[in-house]
Structures are given as C-alpha cells and as structure tokens.
Amino acid sequence: MPCLWIYAKADDCTMSTASADKRKGSPGQQDDDPQAQGRKRLRSSVPDLPKDIWHHILSLLPLPDAARAGCVSQTFRSSWRSHPNLTLSMETLRLDGHTCREDKLARVFTKRVNRIMRKHSGGVRTFNLSYNYLRSFLDTSYLNRWLEIAVTPGIEEVKLSMPLGRTAVYYEFPCPVLSNGNGNSIRHLHLSRCAFHPTAGLGCLTRLFLLEGRKYLTKIYMQMFNTPILAVKFLFLKNLQIDLNDGQTGGFSPSYDYFSLAYFLDACPVLEKFVLGVSQTRVKHELISDGDSNMRRMPGHVHCSVKNVRIMGFCSAKSMVELTCHILENATSLERLTLDAEYDNSSYGDAERSCVGKKGECNPKSRSMIMHAHKGLEVIGKYVLEKVPSTVQLSVKKLCSRCHKIKPKGFRYEYRTTNP
After folding, report:
1. Is the pLDDT reported for residue 352 higher than 80?
2. Pairing with 249, which of 79, 115, 139, 299 sits 20 to 30 Å away (CA)?
C-alpha cells in the first residue's frame, strides 16, 4: 500500500508572508539554499491527485498532523481549513500546563482555538473541545462564537468538557445554535459540567436525540443536570445512565426531586437498562421517616421493557425511595435491581467493595456520608425489600468494612440478596 510522508516544521504555520518572501531571495540564492532545495524536492514528490482526494486523505489525519500538512502547499492549506474533525485540547494544541501560569495558558489556548475557528471554512462533522485542565474560566463569548461556526447542518458529534472552577457555575450551552436545522444531524451530544436548558419550543430537540429516522440513538449518558420534563419520546433508547454530582457544593438542593426521573422511564418505551449514580457530600432532602405511608405514585405508567436497574449512591431521601418503589411496582419485566448506598469505583460489577487507595488507606469520606450510607441500607430493609417481587433478583452492595465502622445509634440492618 503506498504511503505518503509529509514533513513540515510547526514554525512554518505561523510564518508571515513578508518573512517568507524575504526568505525566497533571488534565484541564485534559492539554488544555494539547502532548505529551498528540500522544499522544491517536496513539491515535486507530491503526487498530482484531485483536490477532493487530497481533502479526504488529510481529513483522516489527527488535528496536529493536518495542521503541519497545511504548511506544505495551498491545496493542503485549503484542506486543513475545512478539516471535518476538530479535537481541541491542551494535548492537540501542544500546550504544556507546567511551563506557565494558568491565566497565560488560558489566553494562549483561547487565541489558538479562535484562530483555527475563524479561518475554518465549514463542514465540521465532529467538534470536541476539552478545557477541563484549566481552573480559569474560558470567555464564554468566544465559545459561543466557536459553536456557531461548528454547529451547522451535517455535524454529527458535539462534545464539550468544561472546568468547574472555584464556584459551582456551569457553562450555559447556547441551545439556539441547534435551531434552524443545525442540530438535526447530531448523533452524539456530550456535555460535561455544562448547563443544558432546552425549552419546549426548541423544535429540533426531538431530532437532536432521535434524528429523522429515529433509529440511531440507543444509549444516553447524562451527567450533572436538572431533570427536564418535556414531551419528548426516545423511541429506540435501550440504555440510559444518569450521573448526578453536587460538585462539592455541600449537597443537592432540597428541591431536587429524584422521583421526577421516572419521567425518563416513561419516555423510553423500549428501555432495558437504567443506571443512576448519585455523588453528594451532604443529603439535604426530606428523609423518609418511620410509618411514612404518604408516598407518591404514578398509576398507569407501566415500563414493560426495563430489565436491569442499578442505583448507586442510594440514600434515605424520600424522593429516592419513591423512585425505587415506582420501578418495582411498574417495571413489569424487571429481572434485577442492584442498590448501593455508596458511589465509587467499586460500585460497578458484583465484586466485593474495596475503597483502599494506593497508600493502603481508604479514600476519604465525611462522617456525615458514612452515616447516610448506613441509613440508606436501613431504608432498603424497611421500605424496599418488602416490595421486591419474587421474579426480581435484589442485590445490595456491601459497604467497606474498614471505613464504615461508624454506625448510627441503635442501627440495625441485615444484608440480604434475593433470588427469583
């Protein structure tokens, strides 16, 4: 298979026209210049292929290599400026976070990305911006402008990974960029540490997730969001994972309603697997109390396809108990329910929990969350176990025996696993 090797210095990409003209010099000087001879040989060795073939070849290169190739010829430069796959991060932009201050690094990052986006001619298929290595917040006016350039008809993937910063303030994703047909072709939308607040009038929301044929999206992963209750149906969604993290802000607002997540199950008629992970430093919700029989229900909302449910970070919040009981009562095909009062690296899988770090010590946990974990197990025994049908296998993940020696006064529970 033929192979094409292209060599170009990174400095050539930023060289001015004036300096290039000065370097050319007279014809006699060019003959004596070894670099000029090398460039001449390079030009003569490049095969004479149609422009669209060169464009396809360069579109397969990683972003840094495509940028270097753009320094070689006008054809390559044109292909570079229409590169369909933009992955913009500290690694691809060759930035070293250890050699300069964060504020300077943020300015350099913004300047380089802005230069790339301003000169891009369009036709982006994937846009991946990773800015989570910096604590300083990116100027959102720049990011909004970059999204306007990138999100056009034909784009298939948008991925933003943003920093949390010193305060729990999230970047507000500009939903209007998805309107006017721009979001119709998106097959993958990943927003990390972003606020996503679509309105019911956003006409492309249905097509954003389901596309025109509604045969593409089978899995959604959502992280750190407020639950939208919209008239949207995910007709082909089979796997749904939702991660909720309070971002070290001291717990979720008491107004956050875990029970509202049942609307997702209602909107996914063929959903088979549902995973919920909750990571918080405090529980501020209304806790379920002894003899509390006033629990909400959603009669008539039957989920016929759900087979496997896993809830990690299960707590004694009343709305979470309501969600769990709703699933047990309405998921008619449920085969397995896994509950874990913690959410860590040991939460996935069925192996015994081990939260010991590299130094042989357990990962730090607050006394409050240790108490809430034990309380969560107690609630499972009181309110959940009796509602488990005989056809459902209930698995309750054990807590770490080393860091969970503290127990509430008068605490009692039995670890039980039921088998159908």
Report:
1. no
2. 139
CA distance 61 to 35: 25
Question: Final residue of a domain: which of 81, 115, 143?
Answer: 81
For residue 287, which of 320, 312, 238 has the smallest C-alpha distance?
320
Question: How far apart (Å, rounded) are the C-alpha atoms in residues 414 and 266?
Answer: 33
CB 338 within 8 A of CB 310: yes
Do residue 248 and residue 366 come from a single domain?
A: yes
pLDDT digits (tens, 9 = 90+) for 122-157: 888 889 998 866 656 678 899 999 999 999 998 888
- The DSSP string of 60-128 is TS-HHHHHHHTTT-HHHHHHHTT-SEEEESTTTTT--TTSS-HHHHHHHHHHHHHHHHHH--S--SEEE
Q: Examine the pLDDT at 10 and tell me if it is beyond 50.
A: no
77 and 120 both lie in a single domain: no
Look up tokens 């292909």; give the residue.
79
- Neighbour tally for 371: CB within 10 Å: 16
Q: 3-state SS of the chain: helix, strand, coil percent to 5? A: 30, 15, 55
Same domain, 77 and 112: no
The predicted model gives 24-33 an average pLDDT of 47
